[in-house]
Amino acid sequence: MPRAEIGVFGGSGFYSLLEGAREHKVETPYGEPSDTFTLAEIAGRTVAFLPRHGRTHRLPPHRINYRANVWAMKSLGVEWLFGPCAAGSLQPHVKPGHCVICDQYVDRTWGRGDTFYDGPVVTHVSAADPYCPTLRPLAVEAARAIEIPVHDRGTVVVIQGPRFSTRSESRWFRSQGWEVINMTNYPEGHLARELELCYVNISLITDYDVGLEGSPDVSPVSHEAVIAVLRENNEKLRRLLFAMIERLPRVRSCSCQTALAGARLE
Fold it and tell me: Which residue from 3, 6, 155, 189 puts its CA 20 to 30 A from 217's CA?
């Protein structure tokens, strides 16, 4: 099996990060991943790329096999995992075209396979600080270096999908002070933590969810609009990921690699 040290999950409309690369199919105990993996060299590092919705966008958010995707990355040898995604803004100051490097999430999904530890060994992995403390500041630094508007923290509320929010739901989320709304960030990030991988969420803001209060000319989000914005910003995200890989340490020193320490009653 080929090996990679960095993994990238592509978001909606972002299926061509790696060009001139080789493809590889990975089998897992949890079924098939979203698609075949593409492996290539970037800045002297081996990177594995997987479109989380499949290359033809055939998988809605609630049908993605997150466990298979993350397990496959681990089996390829990945230690650093990047999770760029399309996301909506819940706050006026977080504008379309901005990036938010989230530091917290709120899970509003249900029925998704969200743990590798169904027993018999009971395992409780902490999610107090759910994203890698090394990758988050590195992503912010890289974004600023290439002049991408970036927010160095934010809370993403992850909804079940595939429907978008009602106005009442969006008003509730906004009133909590949460900045970002998305359909795929959970359980992807937590599963990475359960396998002791370093994971970072990069939310590319495409819209204002149900619109912007006080601005009747800002329409509610549509799938067509999201894809259009992403296509316009693919090169921006590509440059950001390359800048992050160039800055990535060779050795991990954060607590992600010991996430299971003290998590089991044995």
Answer: 155
pLDDT tens per residue, range 68-113: 999 999 999 999 999 999 899 999 999 988 999 999 999 999 999 9
**In whole angstroms, what is the distance from residue 8 CA to residue 59 CA?**
17
Q: Give catalytic residue positions.
A: 207, 209
**3-state DSSP assignment of residue 62:** helix
Decide yes or no: CATH 3.40.50.1580 for domain 6-258: yes
> In the structure encoding, which two tokens stand for residue 158, read together?
């992850």
Domain ranges of the chain: 6-258
- 15 vs 76: CA distance, rounded Å: 19
Distances (CA, A) of 206 to 118, 174, 213, 233: 36, 17, 17, 9
pLDDT of 14 over the 80 cut: no
Tens-place pLDDT, residues 209-240: 887 665 665 666 666 666 666 666 778 888 89
Say if CB 237 and CB 84 are below 8 A apart. yes
* CA gap 183, 205 in Å, rounded: 13
First to last CA, the chain: 33
In sequence order, the β-bridge partners of residue 51 are 10
* Helix, strand or coil, per DSSP, at residue 183: coil
